[in-house]
What we know:
Layout: H1 2-16, E1 23-30, E2 38-45, E3 51-58, E4 62-68, E5 73-78, E6 85-90, E7 99-105, E8 111-116, E9 123-127, E10 132-136, E11 143-148, E12 164-169, E13 175-180, E14 185-190, E15 198-204, E16 211-216, E17 222-227, E18 232-239, E19 242-250, E20 262-264, E21 270-275, E22 281-288, E23 293-301, E24 306-311, E25 317-322, E26 327-333, E27 340-348, E28 352-357
Antiparallel strand pairs: 1-2, 1-28, 2-3, 4-5, 5-6, 6-7, 8-9, 9-10, 10-11, 12-13, 13-14, 14-15, 16-17, 17-18, 18-19, 20-21, 21-22, 22-23, 24-25, 25-26, 26-27
Amino acid sequence: MRNLIFLIFTMGSLYACSSGHKNLTLLAGTYTTGNSHGIYAYRFDVSSGDFKLLDSISSLNPSFLAFSAFDNLLYAVNESGPASGISVFDPNGHKGNIKPLGFLKNPGADPCHVVVEPSGNYVVTADYSSGTVTVFSPGAKSIRHRWEFSGSGPDSLRQKAPHIHCVVFSPDARHLFATDLGTDRIYVFSNNGPDIPELKDTVALEPGSGPRHLVFNKKGDKAYLINELSGRVTVFTHQNGKLEQIQSIIADTLGARGSAHIALSGDGDFLYASTRLKGDGLVIYRVNDERGMLTRVGFQPTGSHPRHFLITPDDRWILVACKNENHIEIYKRNIKTGLPEDTGKRIPVDQPVCILAL
């Protein structure tokens, strides 16, 4: 039954992000410490790269967004210290009219990432400052469970305590992974359907690496991790929740200690990682054959602080949220070479930190 539900979910997600659509609805999460007031919706023309503001809605520091195709709900973390929580919206699909549905306070501090269990059974946040993982019911009506972790890393400034930065499911939905920047670990949970996930394993990483974001290939047999502090990409083989490292390759060649996001192209042929603080931009790697090893093939400079970026479902565009520039940069992507080309087009939005396509 779970496999059937997961298949339906996957088909729905593919339909929602189909490259057959001329337009996408883009949602931008922001920090609201400046002129932004929350989440912004745009119409994006995938044939031209043109855009139009559709709607916006007030929300406190909605720094990461996740969409549930199972029940058509949009979730946003509210990354704001003691006022942290999770907000739920109806994004109204391709119309882009955002409607608030609810808010629930998070007992953890500064959630910075959110993911929906693929069958819609629960929602999970990575709570950075408290170093916790929190599980919410569908619609974030209640808290089901909260994991607290302990430990530290060798960096006396950034690793005094656990800092969970990312939560992501394996493509088969059988396991949930949580990266801990503060203790150089990845926690592995088994997904037990409607029940809360169960902590099963801990993967120890290089001391001082600072694991941040993790992405799987579509087959699920490879995983790629961007380490914020070491500035390296770690390549793993994956089988049934077990990660085995096979490669470590540099992304941040300047030692800026600000590597941020990581993503694969839709065809799986190229991997991208963003670096910040010095020489800001996107590092491009070619994914070599079935082994999944990486070869660096290029670098694209961007505006200041490329915290997050989105590769559109048709693989033709890369949208980069440059937080300190107060805009989203639009790049045309060469599908054969993987290299981006700056269009010069910019979506103005104050302190963008996350981009989501419906």
